[in-house]
Amino acid sequence: MKTDEKKYLSLPKKIAYGSGDFGSNFFYMMVSAFVLIYLTDSVGLNAGIAATLMMASKILDGVTDVIFGRFIDRTHSKMGKARPWMFWSAFPLALSMILIFSIPENMSEFAQYAFFFVFYTAANALFYTANNIAYATMSALITKNNTERVQLGSFRYIFAVIASVGVSGSAVALVTTFGGGATGWRTVAIIFALVLVIFSSIASLVCKEIPEADAELDETSKEKKAEAKQISFFESIKVILSNKYYLIMLAIYIALYATNGLASGIGVYYCTYILGNAGLLGIISMSAFVMIVGLILNPTFVKKYGMYKVNLVSYIISTVLSVGLMIVAYMGSLVGVIVFSFIKCIFTAPLFGSLQALVAEISAYTYNTKKIHADGMMFSCSSVGLKVGSGLGTAVAGWLLSLAGYVGDAEVQSAAVLNMIKFSYGALPLILTALITLLLWKLNVVDANKKLTAQDHTA
Cα–Cα distances in Å, from 432 out to 212, 249, 260, 402? Predict the structure, then answer.
């Protein structure tokens, strides 16, 4: 039986894998959606300076992502290659998140900025990098069946949606429940950190990798494995950067998560100052639940029409819907924002469900063209894109707020600030969505692999 036809995963294992993103999103959403307003409104720091520190941290992230990808490629343990990295990294990641939301009030302002930068960087550049790259790489190591990989992507993002909505909808209310201000944010961070550890552990302990020694389960035969080149770290960097599809995928990840980071980072400001109620963020965020419909249907559509067509068509529609969302965002219409957000989420879902399968195809393209296995480094684009993109989105929100003259403790903001919030919430996501559509048009890696495979068979 061909490896792309053999079934490797039971339903419980697919659910266990998906639960990993449930846990990690309690970190991701807490930091991307609420760290900026925590810094500006509870600690009293400047939005522009905080945003600059975030972006500087993300530059370091880009370096550590490929390093951890290399570490995973060279790891050989009883737990496998990726699983041990995912398991152990969850504990220091949880601690770092707590410390990010525990900036001492008696410190000088400079010391507070330094405290934030150190633990924000440790969380993202070290522990979240190890956890996220390992998690993404696991999808290529626990099954060789492409249909199952698409299913894993759907399960992953279904759980991510549930966690994202849960965090967005409950964080503000929980902070108020636990006393508000810095104390409230710290308590909520501790609760969310526990959730992170529990579900990350479930995914890493339940989903076992295919044994490396089992040649029948590998993508290549023993002969082809013997052909695979062993190269140095810097040669690996050259290889992935020479893969045009890797660069396109990296750009898609950055634009995709910059959109999410921008929406999350500015969303609480939009609800507070444009709609008049910060708690409305939870209602708007519930639109992400509709993504579950698209994620469930995605494997069926991909099997019938292929990833390329499904992703491209769905994002063309998403771009059109983004125009409508921008208009209602400028109008300050809660109903309009909810309606367009709900509909748009249906059409953005297929790409989220296909991301890991696309990276696996890009990794296969590297082997088909270079005879080099570099799954861990290829999957680094998911971590680089997620962290740099979300960090960029949040940073841009902070820079624009600072540029417009935002004052954290002011009950009423100036007209310039309100207009900037509308622009950031409505217009910038439209621009990024259109960019993703153009990139997807260029990402026809599945057909490229089919042609290369056909050439090998005829050679």
Answer: 40, 14, 10, 22
